[in-house]
Amino acid sequence: MVAPTSFFADYGCHVRILEEARVLQRLGHQVVICTYRNGQDLPDLTMRRTMPIPFREQHEVGSSPHKIALDFLLFWTVLFEALRRRPDVIHGHLHEGALIGLIVGRLLRIPLVFDFQGSMTAEMIDHHFLSRSSLFYRPLHWLETRIDRLSPAIVTSSQHAADLLVRQFDCRPERVRVMADCVDAETFRPPDEAERAGLAERRSALGIPPGRRLVVYLGLLAEYQGTDALLQAAARVVQERDDVHFLIMGYPAVDCYRQQARQLGLGERATFTGKIPYHQARDFLALGDVAVAPKLSATEGSGKILNYMALGLPTVAFDTPVSREYLRQEGIYARRADPAALAAGLLAALSEEPAASVRRGARLRRMVVEGYSWSRAAGIMIGTYDSLCRTPAGVAPQPGSAQIKPAGRGDGGE
After folding, report:
1. Which residue of 16, 87, 180, 399 sits 20 to 30 Å from the alpha carbon of 158, by its own alpha carbon?
2. What is the pLDDT of residues 182-201, one digit of tens each?
3. b/e string for 217-254 if b means 16 or more Cβ within 10 A?
């Protein structure tokens, strides 16, 4: 796997990479993750990291000019590891990972699977790293299009992303397969009666007053993630109700957003935890009554929604294609990028009758258990690998042609 990021960190695409690698290993595959120098080492995964660069010691979240140097070092890490191990498949995450995988794959005749998690140029625009009027937009969009079209097989995190690849980037439909973000529903489970008895004490330890309805958010803190809109909506909610508290979990820019919350009058009504380790995420989410997913991007996945669903949390989200794909008729939607609409959605969720809220949560969890398990995703991954390993060079894999088995070309495939 090629992971052009500081893996592992406790957010978004890192969780997808982590869970994919783990489920493949459980099925007998050997997985090596090539990634940047920084990041958290995990004892159950084999990782190969790049050499350090002296002028960039800290990891990056999002777009950065320093990623060019990091990706150059990552290319050599992937090439050396591929020469040493001769893997059956290169699994490239994000466009940088796919580009590196395409080059190394062409050199060594190893097929590539591109794990597409959103448009590269659209993400750069969301991060304010690029604008459509920039001189760099057209060449970067051209590069993105070439990566998409040259990839022998692409797995996407949503049906919307698959449609985008075919409609906007003119990819051949037979090369694209949907492998939605998933969740470990056994880990991310609602609290039972015994655990509920201790929730008040755990809330109190975080400084949350008793008797409050708790709205939870877990994810990166950034404008493109909707954090600014969330705080503006929260300010409207607390003006309407005095029994609501917001638990905002994530990073970076915690101090900046804490100050923004104070300026909006949320000082005593919002708790910022900072970074929450992935293995503790479920326990913090279990404290909530309602979850919120204010992500603004129209192309990226939103795996946090599945975590909310698995815990049976009624979820309020901006009305984007990915939110609709996950939550379907059980979601509570707000007009995109509209804090007033988000506040109205939160007030509606908080005002729902307790019995109706419990039924909604049960339906959300059932949707996750039935449709978003990592074992199901593994079948799609292995089928895609197998089709590439069995297909002559230059021939696109056909959907449904793969024989799913727990290894690549031999026992213990890599």
Report:
1. 87
2. 999 999 999 999 999 999 99
3. bbbbbbebbbbbbbbbbbbbbbeeeeebbbbbbbbebb
